[in-house]
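Q: How would the structure tokens look for this protein?
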Amino acid sequence: MGIVVLGRADDPCPRQSSTTGDIGVAPRHQRAPTVKAMDTESVRTAVMSVRDTALARVRDDRGVRVEDYLTVLASLTGEAVVVDAGLFDIEQSDMTPGAPVFGDELNVLLSGDSTDIAEADPLSVVGVVRDQLVPGVLGPEGFPSLQDLYQIVAGNVGELAWGTVATSVPEDHQPEVLPLQVAFELRPAVSEAIAALAAELGSDCPSRHVLCALALASAIAQTADALDPVIGLRLALEVVFGMAKTVPMSSAAMSRLASED
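A: Here is the predicted structure in token form.
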């Protein structure tokens, strides 16, 4: 377990995230700019904003447990894949939060629907993380098998406690936060960061899943001295893939729960 005190620090067409407060269904746009083209001060500021939000969520009087910090960012990234895929309105859907969901649209945004690290689309989650971490933080051999990442999700359908995802890291590196819960709690902060970027950059605004993946990769690099980045990366990607195949908590579901009390 790593604890460290940190400063602030099936449609092959991906969809951009919504640029308004309503992020239930992401509208279809033209292809987003490359990650290199998005290396601007505005994007870096938005990445830091998302990172700081996750950091604040897990900080306590001991500092920050790195595994939970990465899990929060990975949860946001996985949920962002669901938003950008546009399969359903995550805020108003009557689907049961925590239920499994599958679709080629999700796979496209996760890895370009590829199981080869080298072939992952640069604007997929895996492609963004790869291009941010290799070779400076670790080599391509440090990545878990993409086939394994897909299979661990499919192989654990119906076997997990509500709100959790399947992870294979050693016991002392298992997350202590609930991915489904933290993604719902911090959803407004990500929406705010995306809305601010969209107002400034217009069509050059990165997709929600790209922004979150940039923040996740940045955090893996940030914490590499406290947690082996190979372990951190495996944990992070397992959480991303698990959350991307899970129906998110919704405002509608929260309202239903409140009315039953």
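The chain has one domain: 36-252.

The chain is about 50% helix and 5% strand.

Upvote if useful.
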